[in-house]
Design goal:
Number of domains: 2
Order of helices and strands: HEHEHEEHEHEEHHHH
Strand content: 15-25%
Distance between the termini: 39 Å
Radius of gyration: 19 Å
CATH topology of the largest domain: Rossmann fold
CATH class of the largest domain: Alpha Beta
Largest sheet: 7 strands, mixed
Shape: elongated
C-alpha cells in the first residue's frame, strides 16, 4: 500500500520485523503497510470508538490481513497488554497534549517498548520536554512535507537526551544535529509564521508594551540565528 508522505515518514522510523501497536489507527492504512512492506509479523490497530474500529476493520478485510492485523477497540495505550509482545508503539496524527496524556496514563509500561514513533499535530515542544524529563531520547527525527504542511516525526527510546538550549526542544535536537534535508525550508517556513504573528501584534494598540510582541520578537531573532548557523554549516 502506498502511503501519503506523512504516514510514509512515520513508517520509515519503524524498524522492520517489529511487533507494532498503532494507536489512533484511523483507516488502518499504516498497519497494512507495515505488514506488507516492512515485514512486521503482527500489528495491533487501536481505535477508541466502535465506528472507527469498523472503518479500520474494513481496510484490514480488504487486504485479507486479519491473521496479522488485529483491530482493537480501547483507550490508547491502555488497550495493550504485556502479553501482546509489542516492540514499537506508533502514535501519529493526534495533538501533543493528547499524546502526553496517553503517555502519563500508561505509566511505567511505556518503558517496556523498544521504541515509540510519535507524530504530534501540535505542541511538539511540550511532548519533547515531557519525554526528556522522563528519561527518553530521540535517536531519529524526521521532517516530512505533504502539500503545504510540514510534519515532525520523532523516534523515542529510553536514554539521556542532550539539549544544548531550550529552543532546540522546539526545533528538534536531532533534526538540527543530523541536518534533515528539509531543515532549511522548514526553518524559513517557521520564520514566516513568526513574521505574521509579529505583524499582527504590531497593528494592535499599545504594541510596543505588549509582552507577547517582545516574546515573539525574541524567538524570531533566535530562530533566525539558528537558520544562519545551519546555512553556514555549523
Amino acid at each position: 500500500m502506498k502511503l501519503k508522505p506523512r504516514l510514509s515518514g512515520v513508517a520509515s522510523l519503524v524498524p522492520s520485523g517489529s511487533v507494532v501497536a498503532d494507536i489512533g489507527t484511523d483507516h488502518a492504512y499504516l498497519p497494512v503497510h507495515l505488514v506488507k512492506e516492512k515485514s512486521c509479523p503482527r500489528v495491533i490497530a487501536v481505535e477508541k470508538s466502535p465506528g472507527n474500529c469498523r472503518m479500520a476493520m474494513e481496510t484490514v478485510n480488504l487486504f485479507n490481513l486479519n491473521h496479522q492485523v488485529e483491530v482493537r477497540c480501547g483507550d490508547g495505550l491502555l488497550a495493550l497488554q504485556e502479553a501482546d509482545g509489542v516492540d514499537v508503539v506508533v502514535i501519529a496524527g493526534l495533538g501533543g497534549k493528547t499524546i502526553c496524556r496517553m503517555l502519563i496514563a500508561a505509566g511505567d509500561r511505556i518503558r517496556g517498548y523498544k521504541r515509540m514513533v510519535l507524530q504530534p499535530m501540535g505542541d511538539l515542544p511540550l511532548v519533547r520536554r515531557w519525554l526528556v524529563a522522563h528519561g527518553f531520547c530521540f535517536p531519529e527525527e524526521k521532517l516530512v512535507k505533504e502539500k503545504e504542511h510540514f510534519y515532525e516525526i520523532i523516534a523515542v527510546e529510553k536514554g539521556r537526551q542532550e539539549v544544548v538550549e531550550p529552543l532546540f526542544l522546539e526545533l528538534g535536537p536531532t533534526l538540527l544535529k543530523k541536518k534533515d534535508p528539509l531543515l532549511v525550508p522548514w526553518l524559513e517556513h517557521k520564520l514566516k509564521l513568526y513574521e505574521k504573528v509579529i505583524g499582527g501584534l504590531l497593528r494592535s494598540r499599545d504594541a510596543s508594551d505588549d509582552p507577547r510582541r517582545r516574546y515573539f520578537l525574541n524567538r524570531y531573532e533566535r530562530l533566525k540565528g539558528v537558520l544562519e548557523d545551519v546555512c553556514r554549516g555549523k
